[in-house]
Amino acid sequence: MMVNYLALEDGMLVLDEAFSKTRMIMEGHSDVKFTPEEYQRFYECVYILCVQRTSSENSKILYDRYIFGLQESITSLVLPALENKDDALLLTALVAHWNNYNLMARWLSRFFSYLDRFFIPRVGGSGLLEQAVECFHNLINQDRSGETSNRNLLQNVMEYFVQIRGSEGKRCYEEFQEALLSNAAAYYSHIASNGLQYDSCADYMYKAQWCLNQEEERANHILDPSSKEKLLQMAKLYLVDQALAKLADKKQAENCGSSTDYQDLLSKCAGLNIGDRSRDPNWRIA
After folding, report:
1. What dihedral do alpha carbons 77, 78, 84, 88 form, nearest 10°?
2. What is the CB neighbour count within 10 angstroms for residue 199?
3. Measuring CA to CA, how many Å separate 246 from each of 211, 212, 250?
4. Calpha distance 57→78 (Å, rounded)
5. What does the alpha-carbon distance between residue 184 and residue 141 come to, in Å, rounded to a whole number?
6. Taking Cα atoms as reference points, which of 61, 66, 50, 39 lies closest to residue 117?
7. Residue partners of 86: CB distance under 8 A and separation at least 6
8. Is the dihedral of CA 175, 177, 181, 183 positive or negative?
9. Over the stretch 30-57, which tens digit does the pLDDT of each residue have?
């Protein structure tokens, strides 16, 4: 019989059991199964914590706990297992862990499915299964922000996507590329918005040039030529092309209302070329 109230602390202890058992799947125990009683227990736990009126924050806490469970499984199990592997060994390990990861994520998404139906549509967050793809893109964004990441590992994973092209493999790669471009668009839209708001015109153009240089260097390591070109054009679109009008306004304001030579600004922006190494290569986004 379903209870009417469950303390958050007690509910999280119950869900810890679900995460512990699904972690066994990631560890290679593909025969792990959940009984109907376990499924009902975990689902009802999430449901009760979400619908009871004692706290409006429970749904967000549960959503964050779900994401943390995905990220923790990748950082503690998947990435270490892929280190120091290449060629056939890397692909074999990647496929095995990806299959286990999908199985784990599907079980967890069933337990947390109430969030998918009611909480996520209301707040506009990513669906539960979509978080699996986002975890890889987060590694790329860490590299963009100057944080430590393993570019060799990213390159090896990308080579896997390239090598599985053909029939279903081609569709898989195209979907991955689309997600990669969408992620880059969101990232550089955010960088451009902040830069236009807080940086001087000169500093913004300096930052835009640095971002283009870094993106090209990163793309040279992990992307094929076709994907690299699309990604660099996406970065330039948000950092330069769509920022021209606001840059002109900013330059005019910095000149204390004097008329802005728009053609001069346009020429300078057009001169922001991918591969320009004239700036300090050690500069980092603040």
Report:
1. 130
2. 16
3. 19, 19, 6
4. 31
5. 8
6. 50
7. 156
8. positive
9. 788 899 999 999 999 998 988 886 666 7
Contact 49, 6 (CB under 8 A): yes
Angle at 187 between CA 82 and CA 74, to 5 degrees: 20
Give the Cα separation of 268 and 280 in Å (integer).
Answer: 18
pLDDT in tens, 225-238: 888 889 899 998 99
pTM: 0.51
* Residue 22: burial class (beta carbons within 10 Å; 0-12, 13-18, 19+): buried
User: Residues with Cβ < 8 Å from 175, sequence gap 6 or more?
Assistant: none
Note the pLDDT tens digit of each residue in 178-194: 777 888 898 899 999 99
Per-residue model confidence (pLDDT) at position 137: 57
- With a CB cutoff of 8 Å and minimum separation 6, the contacts of 210 are 279, 283, 285
Q: What is the 3-state secondary structure (H, E, C) of 244-281?
A: HHHHHHHHHHHCCCCCCCHHHHHHHHHCCCCCCCCCCC
Q: What are the angstrom distances between the C-alpha of 2 and each of 41, 45, 52, 143, 284?
A: 9, 9, 12, 46, 54
Q: Show contacts of 25-30: CB within 8 Å, 24+ apart.
A: 25/100, 25/103, 25/104, 25/107, 26/73, 26/77, 26/78, 26/97, 26/100, 26/101, 26/104, 27/77, 28/96, 28/100, 30/99, 30/100, 30/103
Cα angle: 79, vertex 132, 32; to 5 degrees: 80
Burial of 115 (0-12, 13-18, 19+ CB in 10 A): buried
